[in-house]
Structures are given as C-alpha cells and as structure tokens.
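Tutorial handout. Part one gives the primary structure; part two gives the three-dimensional structure as tokens.
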Amino acid sequence: MSDISLFIALPIGMAFFIPIVSRNIKWFPDIAGNFTTFVLMLLSLLTINQEIVYNVGNWKPPFGIVLVLDGFSCLVLIIVNLIGFFSTLFSVEYIEKMFTSKLRYYSLFLLMLAGMNGVVLTGDLFNLFVFLEIASVASYALVGFGCEARELEASFKYLVMSSIASTFILLAVALIYGRFGTLNMAHVSLMVQKYGMDNVIKFSAVLLFCGLAVKAALVPFHAWLPDAHPSAPAPISAMLSGVVIKALGVYVIARITYNIFEMDTMISSMFIILGIVSMMIGVLMALGQWDFKRLLAYHSISQMGYIILGLGLGTPLGILGGIFHLFNHSLFKSLLFLNSGSVEYETGTRNLEKLGCLSRRMPVTSFSSLVASLSISGIPPFNGFWSKLIIILAAIQAGRPFSALWAVIGSILTLASFTKVQRYVFFGHGKHFKLESLPQIKEVPNLMQMSMILLAILCTVTGVLALGGPNGIFGPVIDVLTGGPSAYILKVLGKQ
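Part two.
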C-alpha cells in the first residue's frame, strides 16, 4: 500500500463518475458506492504498521505537497473508512424508503469521505484547509438532504458556524505562511523550534484551535451539532458523530498540538477543563431530551469530552485512553445512530414518548442498541468500559483525581440517559404509545441489520485492544504523539 493518494483519488473519481452512469442505470449508485467504500476499508487495513511519506509529483518537502502516513493517521484512516462502509451498506435500503436521488447521495457521501481521508493524510496546512472544506461542504448538503424546512434550517446553521470556523483556520494558515514562508507542517514545526512562538504564531494557534473546536463540537463551540445530527439521514448522522467530528476536529487538534506546537502545561490544563465541561454539559443536556437522535447528538458532545480529557493529560496512559475512546466511540455511536434510523424507518417517529415495546418486533435493532448503550455507558465487558477505565486511571496517575471523579459521574449520568432510551423505546413504552400500531412494525431489511450486527460484534470484542497498554496495538499512535515535533520533523523532512 505505497500509493496512499488512492484514499483521495478513488472516492473523488467515483463521486463524479456515479452521476454520469446512474441516469441510465438505476442500480449503479448502490453498487458503486458500496464497492468504493469496501475497497477503501480494505486498503486502510493494509496500512497497518506502515509509515509512508508520499511526495505528490515527486516534489520533495517542504517545497511540494506531501501526504504522511504514520501510526496516528493509520488509525483514523481505518476508523473513517470502516464506518464509511457500514454507513453505505445501511444506506441501500434506508435511502430507498426515506429519501430520493441516490446518485446525489452517494456522490456527496464519497466527496465527504475523500475530504476526511485528505485531512488525515495531508502534511500541508493549506491542503488541510482544502480537504476540510471538501468534507464540510458535502456534509452541509447531506444534513439538509431531505429538503424539509427543519433540515434546511439545521444545514444552514451548520454552514454558517462551520464557515466562520473555516475562516479562522484559513486566517491562521495565512499568518503562519506570512511568518515562515512555508505551509509544510513539519517545516512549520521546524521553524517554530528555531524561532520560537512569537505573538503572530500564538495568535495563529488560538485561531486554529477555535476553528477546529467548532469542527469537533467542543463546548462552547457545539451549538450546530444538536440540530445537524437529528436532521441528517441516519447513516450521515453516524458519519458525523462517528468520524467527521473526529477526523476534522479532534484528529487535527491532536496533530497540531503534539506535532507542530508541542503540548505544554497551559495547553494541557485547557484541554482538561474543556474536556470536563464538554463531558458534563453534553450528558446533562442529553438527560432532558425526548428526541432519540437529539439525545444521541448531545452524547456525542459529552464523549468528545472524554477524548479531549485523555489527550490533555499528556501521559502515555492518558493518550492511550483518549485514542482508544476515539476508536470505541466511532463504533458504538455510529451503531446508536443506525439504531435510531431503524426505529424511525419502521415507526416514522423519533419521539421516545410515542415509542415502546419494540424488542418484540425488532429484536436485532433492540439487541444491538442494548450493546451500544452498555458500551457508551462504560459497562464491562464492552469496549467503552476499557477506554473510560484507562482515562480514569490515567487521571489518577497524573495527580488529577477530581478529573477522574468527573469522568465517573459523567459515565453514571450516561447510563441513566440510556436506561431511559431502553425503557421507553424497547422494553417499556412512553405515555403516548399506541399498542395497536405494534403489529404493523417489523424488523428492518437485511442489509440494515447486517450493519448493526457487525458494529455490535465490534463493540463486544474490541475491548481486547487495550491489552498491552501503551506498548500494545495503539503503541505506534502513542509514539507519534509523545515523540513530539522532533520525531515528526525527522519522519517528513529527514532532518532536524
């Protein structure tokens, strides 16, 4: 897997090819979309234990555009394309009934996927901005894909806030280029080490963080997310929560913080505070929600807090916990959004008070939702328990017991929230539930079931990835971040 540009070229090429062919061949979008995401998933798995610096056009850095594959980008690449495949598999039947124009849906989906792959692989600040915009513009359209007033309003709100964030990022890139005359991230890091952090670079770093915090939906930059996630089609909600806020937000924040500007005590404290605030505000807002998808959207904000808390601790164990939770969250939160899509697909509503007793008629959806609920709540032996436990232990080890306490409280409140979901949707019923509607409900089609079953299996077994601790399977990711700017510069430029 030496030509990593395929992760960008393949989905972009297919995104433009699908509309050309699909006007005459109606089944082509489903086949082409799922084939493309399946190939990308396989290619991402082939990148395990590989380190590649790909010089576009054979121009050597820092003068040419460079794509960088290391342990960190490999992990996020696998997450993006794995969830991408499960989402397109779920979309085959879901979009057929709930929406129209599959060719436009798959084209936008693949453009969003290409943008995220580009963000993960690029080693160039301006191209980082370009790929951010490709993914963002496609996601705006997908959020409003139903074209109803509520969906268009959510899409417009997302567009406005994300465009402001993109402006911050572009301004920061311009200031950095004006100061150092380079856009290569490793070369920028070298210049920062050589000349230090003057006021221009500090201001640029603040602009970058604020812009990326909007993309990551961290409190207080989260206002777009509770509207965007419920409005989007369920597979897009799974992508937005499972990978978009990570690839466009958390991944870039971690990459820039650890490999360009270097983590210090002040940044660490800021990350920890933001993590705790996001964790608690997100879960408290979720407790009062009765819209299934809106409740899940607030939990996305809360779970981002756990990831940022782990990364903010800055220790190998803390980074392991944050990265492991990033991986786990992509699985169980994508599954929960697909569950909510299945419920809406059969019942026509997301209101918890109008639902009930679905475990009788939708056993696969019910069981997979129970697995995901236990996982996000941190109940053993599911994967969410292990990543939360590592974050709590890392906080205690780092001398921050109160941070560990907040993480425990957040997990208890998460369990309370999902106990409500299980009670009202699957094992009990809301006060507006009508028993006569239950016989008309049946389990969703096979491909939708397959996506949920596979994700539920992964939520059950991936806890074993914690074995070995910082020296285990996530060791290469931890090495990338703890190695700091010097290791990143050496990898990309081959010099200090």
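Part three, for discussion. The longest helix spans residues 149-180. The chain has a mean pLDDT of 88.
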